[in-house]
Amino acid sequence: MTIRRTATRLADGRELVYFDDSEPYASGGATRRLDDPRPLPDRFAPVVGEDGSARPATGPEMRRDPLTGDWIPMASHRMNRTFLPAADACPLCPARTGASGTAYSDGEIPDTDYDVVVFENRFPALMQLPGLTVDDAWHVDGDPLWPAAPAAGRCEVVCFSSDHTSSFGDLTAHRVRTIVEAWADRTAELSALPGIQQVFPFENRGREIGVTLPHPHGQIYAFPFVTPRTQAMLREARTYAERTGGHLLHDVVEAELRAGTRVVLESEHWVAYVPAAARWPVEVHLAPRRDVPDVAALDAAERDDLAEVYLRLVRGLDRFFVDADGDHIPLPYIAGWHQAVVGAGRELGRLHLQVFSVLRAPGKLKYLAGVESGMAAWISDTTPERIAARLQEIPL
User: Fold this and answer.
1) H or E element that contains 188
2) Higher confidence at residue 53 or residue 111?
3) Which one from 77, 139, 217, 338 is the annotated catalytic residue?
4) Residues marked as binding for Zn(2+)?
């Protein structure tokens, strides 16, 4: 399939990229609108305070927790981000056409339609300011116990469809293939940015998850640090390699295939299984059969297959729970791509998707108990085998 990539800048300087798979745009017969008519100030321009004096633009900072070693971004400006807007005020919908026939937009997309579009988040938890890197560090209160630094990463939004009322599972495989191409493009581009150590594409779906924009979309975080979960995975993978000479993530997939009891979907290039130590009420991992570090490393056949398999998985998960009337319950979920880190330890990583839900039964959510929230000591409300048996029963 032909997918055309067209990049531009929004009025405040943020990058926006169209990924087109439909005509006349895919072949170049027409081009999406590239100018943003909104009167937005440059996001890096000095800010004039109430006293009339100009101060340099600031971005989010991150502080290191000395008790755990975790970096915690501080992004107080996100308190003012858009929250559950009306459908006609959704910032992810395409521009509208006025009575005069002129397109206008108070949202983020300049054109009146699009296939897939990616742009820098207007309310980012991570942002690279010109001239600042994580090396421009300081100490909170001047005490070396509390290191702090600019949260010099990047946050992007991936709009899956211009249809405000649809969801990922409503898409065609053709469109999902375009989304896969967008993930691959952004993974490669963001990994090449200075200081980026990890790229994480993900989707939150459903109010139960905390979604503030119902329009079908995902996000991509490019972290200037390695996240705590990935650090733990790298630690285990390194220990395993030293002990056995094997690759942990590869061997996990092979072990799940040998056992077979928790495998819920297979294709030529992909395997989906409920992990043997699943912690969420519904949890599935989707992994390529071939060892690849990230989405950008997938070949064309693997990307084509992924578009089909991903849809089968999402649509199957939407049939996991049934209400009292026998109707299927759309599953609230988080779907995130675990990719190899950019720097040291990259050889220990292996691409895989983790999809999980907080819904433990119709109308019942899994709330984290004290030991889970306070001690990160997880307690499962079910067993991986029960989750797998239900998915095998559907089937996907």
Assistant:
1) helix 173-191
2) 111
3) 217
4) 90, 93, 164, 215
